[in-house]
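Fill in residues.
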């Protein structure tokens, strides 16, 4: 009996030593921290831990000697918190960056990101295979790649989204409606026959589809690049833009747009009521209306209007950078490459845990299943695939059907690239004037978007005078000078 106890003690000691060694080996793996916006839901910590554990199992199976830790930061404070982390020297390895969130220009200018050319060449084979070749120029600064461009909708498709019950009820030939002028026949029918329905939705921050010049690419507040004539123009002096806004004003006066449209701000809440005949798409045009149907909660059909040009900003819409202070950039790049290589891993990070955050509804293709994702208060995990990187590996779901993903890919392939692709505006010399101009444009947009001015020509003249008083002519000269210098270079 005594010998048994001694033997047991020896075995327990050996087990503990082995366990400690194992723990030390696991604990000894560097931890790679990835900062991401908590974009889609209220993420619960215990759920995050399960996602990380599942991800780290895949990472370990791939032979990468590191573990992944996700640092989720709310959208509203993401830029400021990332700036504070960089300035204080707080450790992190990977972070989302873009033209609009945690801006890449600002980070590169202050040395916050690491050059990635060699890391990508050595560890980024899957990344190199899947990133759109055209996107790399937007990530390059003086020949140095400073971030990994995500797969994304680089060109935005504009479309009219119609309530299907109205289209069916009045036998509307919606597929042949592609302009504001062609839209009026539908608006007139709804106005005359559906007292509970507002024919067209517009608000202080959302215009009627088709009311923008598709060949005018924004450069900065109040200025656009005329893609047809290849020149810089004032937005509110552009004939095509003014013609379209004049038509919106006409529709407002005919009662096709709500009288209080200019004070409405919550687009999604409004359109989900189903009280509008035609609205804009939720970011992506789908020929069968499936994306809009899923987003708005009632049957929709769509007709295509136009596609924007691909720009430096659109290619920078979501990217992943490596912190210049990262202690383990090689391992960070290996993990990021695995995310691009392994759809199981990227979809795990996006959707969460099967059975808890989503269910598989069609597994006929195990490599690309169809899933159903929990929503509302039941949704405790969710990160946009393009925030992670490989959007086109997304499993079909309510977020995007595979048809929607393939439509994005086709749009990217067919879309035109702006004549200013590669140009980056240095706003520093004009930042004070741009603040004043942006303030004016935010105010006047709600009037142009909704058409709610009493006299169109007088209002346009007033707006242009205000912009000139705010210094838009000086801004024009500076922007034109930078464009000229960029072209020469």
């Amino acid at each position: 009996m005594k010998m048994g106890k001694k033997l047991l003690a020896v075995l327990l000691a050996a087990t503990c030593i082995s366990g400690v060694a194992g723990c030390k080996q696991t604990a000894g793996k560097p931890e790679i921290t990835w900062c991401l916006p908590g974009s889609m839901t209220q993420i619960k910590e215990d759920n995050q831990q399960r996602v990380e554990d599942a991800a780290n199992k895949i990472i370990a199976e791939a032979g990468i000697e590191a573990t992944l830790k996700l640092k989720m930061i709310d959208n509203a404070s993401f830029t400021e918190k990332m700036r504070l982390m960089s300035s204080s020297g707080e450790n992190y390895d990977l972070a989302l960056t873009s033209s609009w969130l945690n801006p890449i220009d600002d980070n590169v200018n202050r040395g916050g990101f690491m050059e990635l050319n060699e890391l990508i060449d050595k560890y980024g084979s899957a990344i190199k295979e899947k990133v759109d070749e055209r996107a790399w120029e937007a990530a390059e600064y003086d020949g140095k790649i400073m971030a990994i461009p995500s797969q994304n909708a680089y060109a935005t498709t504009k479309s009219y989204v119609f309530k299907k019950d109205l289209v069916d009820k009045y036998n509307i030939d919606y597929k042949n409606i592609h302009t504001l002028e062609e839209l009026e026949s539908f608006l007139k029918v709804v106005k005359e026959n559906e007292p509970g329905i507002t024919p067209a939705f517009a608000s202080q921050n959302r215009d009627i589809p088709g009311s923008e010049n598709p060949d005018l690419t924004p450069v900065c507040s109040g200025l656009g690049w005329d893609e047809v004539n290849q020149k810089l123009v004032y937005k509110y002096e552009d004939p095509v833009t003014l013609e379209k806004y004049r038509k919106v004003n006409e529709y407002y006066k005919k009662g096709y747009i709500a009288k209080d449209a200019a004070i409405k701000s919550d687009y999604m809440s409004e359109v989900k009521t189903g009280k509008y005949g035609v609205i804009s798409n939720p970011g992506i045009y789908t020929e069968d209306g499936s994306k809009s149907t899923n987003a708005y909660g009632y049957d929709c059909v769509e007709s295509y209007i136009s596609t924007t040009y691909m720009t430096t900003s659109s290619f920078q819409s979501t990217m992943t950078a490596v912190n210049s202070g990262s202690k383990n950039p090689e391992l960070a790049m290996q993990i990021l490459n695995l995310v691009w290589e392994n759809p199981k891993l990227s979809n795990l990070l996006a959707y969460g845990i099967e059975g808890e955050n989503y269910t598989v509804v069609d597994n006929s293709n195990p490599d690309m299943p169809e899933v159903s994702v929990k929503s509302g208060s039941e949704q405790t995990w969710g990160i946009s695939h393009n925030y992670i990187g490989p959007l086109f590996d997304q499993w079909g779901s309510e977020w995007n059907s595979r048809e929607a993903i393939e439509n994005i890919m086709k749009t990217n392939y067919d879309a035109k690239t702006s004549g200013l692709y590669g140009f980056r505006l240095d706003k520093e010399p004009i930042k004070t004037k741009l603040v004043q101009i942006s303030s004016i444009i935010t105010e006047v947009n709600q009037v142009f978007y909704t058409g709610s001015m009493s006299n169109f020509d007088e209002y346009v003249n007033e707006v242009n005078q205000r912009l000139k008083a705010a210094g838009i002519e000086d801004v024009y000269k500076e922007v034109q000078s930078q464009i000229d210098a960029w072209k020469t270079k």
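The chain has two domains: 29-152+314-414, 156-308+424-489.
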